[in-house]
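WARN retry 2 of 3 for item q-0093 after timeout on previous attempt; input resubmitted unchanged.
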Amino acid sequence: MTALPLRVLDVAPGTDGVTAITAALRARFEDQGNPFAPVPAVSRHVTTGYADLVRAAIHPEEPVAHADAAVIVATSGSTGDPRGVTITRANLRSAHAAAGQAVPRLASAPWVLALPATTIGGLVVVARALLSDQPVHVLPSVGGARAFDPADLARLPAHCAASIVPAQLSAILDHPAATAWLRDAPAVLVGGGRTPPALVDRAREAGIPIVLTYGMTETTGGCVYDGIALPGMSVNLEEDGRIRVRGPMVAAGYRDNATGSRVRFDGDAVLTADLGRWSDEHLEVIGRADDVVVVNGVNVSPHAVEEALLELPVVREAAVVAVPDDRQGARLVAFAVCHEPVPPVDALVEWVAQRLGPAARPDVRVATSLPRLPHGKIDRMSLLREAGAV
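OK item q-0093 returned
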């Protein structure tokens, strides 16, 4: 079969960019257009360097070999360079159908778009709206048009489904009108990273119908809802604890056909770089397989240090990176966003040491916010630069 040319779609921030993606996706569903690859324009959340990485990841000069390909989506690149993933029309239809089976309220709900449509989280929202012939309401902040403002939610029609990241949920819960609006949503999907248990409790106590999702670009977004695989999908754990996902939502592969060291495709399955465990037959994601460093001869997980910090009610967000150190092997640097009053740094350090041992003692830096990539994930490369690692 003849390969199809790839259409590169430069996506402006805001409604105009979403309109362009919607038109390209509709044409592809109707078999009236070629596969396309969205590249975000430079905005308040997208640097020239990041946009260039996305453009390189999609391999714009190469035709698309997969006949059912709909869109090439770049992975987040939160721990390195992004990679282009081939998402098919069947992947998107399966994602929509499976979510509707798991949460029937989503089958025919209108949507709010709060995430960039150039990433899998936002793109799937656009696809669901198209496939169910429902409207999608675009927040003014999408694509970095301006800062996310919870008040924008309260200005939209009620009873819309939403897909957001934990940082947005936290901001919404601090805004009474936005909280009330979200309370009336048919369902609120929360993904794109770990949601702290304290934040989950706040949301549920506020009556918000949140659904915690796990997935990635390689699985066409969230494929596990509240610890249970979506219909048609299966999750298994390898001997080393790595999560393997199988089913029709697994993408067709990487644009460069490389297997990669962290994530590997195998037909309709993908071996992730995430570690999991079973808790009452529910999947619990506990970190990444490559998330272990050696400090003074002791294996330490930066993820575990984050977890320890987030156990403290005063810590709102936390991110930990490892910096090479000639004496210790590695040095942990923790960035913590705290509620007022901000605790002494020494108290945070000692808490971690008591919970995890002296080797896990981090260099704690209190921050007003954490840097984020366009889709809301923590920009760990920026944190590494700030910590002096790169």
